Amino acid sequence: MLPLLPSLSLSLALLAVEPASLQAIAAPAGGAVGFAALDLASGRTLALNDQRPFPMQSVFKFPIAVEVLRQVDAGKLALDRVVALDKADARAGVSTPIAVPGKATIGQLLEVMVVHSDNVSCDKLLALVGGPRAVDARMRALGIDGIVIRFSELDMGAGKGDNTATPAAMVALLAKLARGQLGLSPAAARLLDKLLLDVVTGPRRIKGGLPAGTPVAHKTGTARTHDGKTDATNDVGLVTLPSGKRIAVAVFVSASPADEATRERTIADLARAAYDRFGAK
C-alpha cells in the first residue's frame, strides 16, 4: 500500500476530530459531555457542547486563585500573612493537609487549595477575598460571562447549588492566563501557572492520554455519585505541545452513569484529540 500524501494525511487527521467524531469519543461516558480546545498560536478551535453550562465542582478553585493573586498584587492580601483556622473551618468527612484548628499563611492555603484541591483552604480563601460574589465579579471584569460562582464548598456540600462554567468560558480564562491577560503581575502569573503544573489530582484525565512528561497546568473537579450517576468529572488546563506552543483544553462530564475509569478515559481521549489536531505539522 502506497503511503498517504502529506496533504491527504493532514486532511484525514482533521476529519478525525469533526463534531461527529467528538461525539463518538464522548459517547461512552453517557450523560452530558462538554469540550472546548483552543490552539493559542493559531486560534483554531474544537468544540462539543461548548456553550452549555456544567457544574464545576473544584474547578472553581482556579478562578478563586486568580482573585486571591489579584488582591495580593493590589496589596489587600499578602502571601506571607498568617491566618487562623478554627473549628468552624473544618469540613466533616474531608481530609486536609492544613491543621485545623491551626495557622497557615495565605501562600500555604493557596498552594494546597490548587495543588491538592483542598476544601478547607478553598473556603478560607474565598471568605478572605469577599466571598463567591467577589470571584464572580472578577470573571465579569475579565470579560468572561460563562463562569458563574455563587457557592462555597460548604454550600455545595450542603446541596445549596453548583457553580457552573461553559467549556468555552473556561478555555477563555485559561487563554488569558497563558497570554498574561488576567491583570496579574508577572510574578503572580508565574506562581499560578506553577501551582497548576504541580496539581496532583486527576492524573488519568487530561494527562491520561498524552505522552509521558507532557506539561499540563490544570485543575480538576469531581462530584459524588448518587442514584447511579456522577454529577461532575472535570479537568481544564493548558497543555504544552512538543513545539513549545500551548493549547487550552476544558472537558466537563456531567450526569454520567459510567464508572470512573470510563469518565476519565473520555476526558483523556478528548484532550488527546486536541493534542493530535493542534500538534499536526
| Shape category | globular
CATH domain class: Alpha Beta
SSE string, helix = H, strand = E?
HHEEEHEEHHHEHEHHEEEEEH
| Largest beta sheet: strand ordering | 2-1-12-11-8
Cα-atom Rg, whole angstroms? 19 Å
Low-confidence stretches: 1-16
Number of helical segments with 4 or more residues: 10
Produce a short descriptive summary.
By secondary structure, the protein is α+β, with helices and mostly antiparallel strands.
Characterise the protein shown here.
α3 (61-73) packs antiparallel against α9 (186-197). It is built from ten helices and twelve strands. The chain has one domain (25-279): Beta-lactamase, CATH 3.40.710.10. The strands form four sheets. A five-stranded antiparallel beta sheet has the order 2-1-12-11-8, with helices on both faces. Strands 3-7-6 form a three-stranded antiparallel beta sheet. The chain is an alpha+beta fold and 281 residues long. The chain starts with 5 loop residues before the first helix and ends with a helix. Mean pLDDT is 92; it is low at 1-16. β9 and β10 form a beta hairpin. The chain has helices spanning 6-15, 19-26, 61-73, 106-115, 119-129, 132-141, 153-157, 167-178, 186-197, 260-279, and strands spanning 32-39, 45-48, 54-55, 82-85, 102-105, 147-148, 164-165, 216-222, 225-226, 229-230, 233-240, 246-254.
Provide the descriptors you would attach to this structure in a database record.
single chain; 281 residues; alpha+beta; Beta-lactamase; 5-stranded antiparallel sheet; 3-stranded antiparallel sheet; 12 strands
How do the helices and strands line up, and which of them pair or pack?
Layout lengths: L5 H10 L3 H8 L5 E8 L5 E4 L5 E2 L5 H13 L8 E4 L16 E4 H10 L3 H11 L2 H10 L5 E2 L4 H5 L6 E2 L1 H12 L7 H12 L18 E7 L2 E2 L2 E2 L2 E8 L5 E9 L5 H20 L2
Antiparallel strand pairs: 1-2, 1-12, 3-7, 4-5, 6-7, 8-11, 9-10, 11-12
